[in-house]
Design a protein that fits this description.
- By secondary structure, the protein is of the alpha+beta class.
- The protein is built from 4 helices and 9 strands, in the order αααβββαββββββ.
- A 6-stranded antiparallel beta sheet has the order 3-4-8-7-6-5. A 3-stranded antiparallel beta sheet has the order 2-1-9, with no helix packed on it.
- The longest helix is centred in the N-terminal third of the chain and has 7 residues.
- It is globular, with a radius of gyration of 14 Å.
């Protein structure tokens, strides 16, 4: 079953397991990162849906992680986007270890061995990725959410 998740990862064989970078690395990752990541590697600001502004995560609920994942193109219905085939390789994520840490997130039906994360209010997404083989890892793509 793990092979199904590996197929969704753009560089699964080459990428090491996800781990939070040192604070300096997170700050150097791109413009504005110092405003998003605290010294412990956690999110300083709330994570919101880009489309409707619904709160997805509270500050401190997730850890910054780097992992290359292929997410379907953003659409209102994530299941339709997954079936369409096109997508983006996303590298920077908020890693959430407990699904009950989310304030407002929905999950698509299984697509292989993966569930995509969407906004529970407006269904925009996918904003993230969850492999069913790893019950404790939920990835929210930084470029697909807003921060407040």
């Amino acid at each position: 079953m793990a092979a199904a998740c590996a197929g969704m990862e753009a560089a699964a064989a080459a990428a090491p397991p996800p781990s939070p970078p040192p604070p300096a690395a997170a700050a150097a990752a791109g413009p504005g990162w110092a405003e998003l990541v605290c010294a412990q590697g956690r999110n300083l600001k709330a994570v919101l849906c880009q489309r409707c502004g619904s709160r997805v995560l509270l500050p401190g609920a997730a850890t910054f992680a780097r992992r290359e994942l292929l997410l379907p193109a953003m659409r209102k219905k994530a299941a339709a986007a997954a079936a369409a085939g096109g997508g983006d390789v996303v590298r920077e994520h908020w890693l959430v270890r407990d699904m009950f840490s989310f304030e407002n997130v929905g999950f698509t039906r299984d697509v292989g061995n993966v569930k995509f994360l969407v906004c529970a209010d407006c269904e925009a997404g996918p904003i993230g990725w969850h492999c069913l083989d790893d019950k404790d890892s939920f990835y929210v793509a930084l470029e697909r959410v807003a921060h407040e």
